[in-house]
User: Which sequence fits this backbone?
């Protein structure tokens, strides 16, 4: 449910963007919201690439499947180039056959329904986060709402100009 | 009747209509709210 936190924060960020700008229309507010979404995601992507995962994995959580893909095998510690395979005593034919098997495993994993649904959910997360920023910016645009249901003393002077002078 | 062409003359130059200060402010608010919600553990699973 970290996606909900990200959507709420992006909505409030978009609202803040519109409150800090003056005289924007709805379209301009939406553009400001999209740019703000881009800035936030660029920052989160930078955090991810530098090793600090703050929230980008929340959107990408659907893609990070905890269970291994069906048919995929653990390839850690296995030679992935021909030179290393020769040094480890593996023949060229065995190396070629192993590469073909690994390619088939990757293809089968990519074509599995689980991987396809994960990709679609990732796309939906990105789209919803962008929509949250846009809706927040549009909600914050325009003149401020005034609650007219409460009786409030008028702050304007109603005295005639003759009394003021 | 003669027609006079209407020309537009800018009194003040418009550099950019995009308020980047507001965008940075919104991004900072979004990141701060997300960090706060994550620290508070809301919404809980």
Assistant:
């Amino acid at each position: 449910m970290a996606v909900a936190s990200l959507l709420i924060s992006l909505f409030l960020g978009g609202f803040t963007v519109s409150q800090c700008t003056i005289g924007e229309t709805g379209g301009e507010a939406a553009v400001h919201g999209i740019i703000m979404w881009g800035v936030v995601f660029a920052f989160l992507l930078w955090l991810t690439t530098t090793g600090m995962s703050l929230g980008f994995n929340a959107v990408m959580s659907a893609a990070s499947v905890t269970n291994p893909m069906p048919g995929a095998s653990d390839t850690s510690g296995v030679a992935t180039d021909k030179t290393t395979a020769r040094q480890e005593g593996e023949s060229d034919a065995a190396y070629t056959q192993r590469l073909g098997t690994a390619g088939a495993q990757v293809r089968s994993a990519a074509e599995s329904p689980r991987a396809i649904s994960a990709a679609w959910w990732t796309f939906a997360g990105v789209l919803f986060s962008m929509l949250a920023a846009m809706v927040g910016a549009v909600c914050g645009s325009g003149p401020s709402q005034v609650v007219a249901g409460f009786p409030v003393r008028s702050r304007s002077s109603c005295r005639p100009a003759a009394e003021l002078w | 009747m003669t027609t006079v062409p209407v020309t537009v003359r800018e009194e003040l130059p418009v550099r950019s209509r995009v308020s980047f200060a507001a965008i940075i402010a919104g991004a900072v608010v979004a990141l701060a709210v997300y960090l706060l919600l994550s620290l508070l553990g809301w919404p809980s699973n």
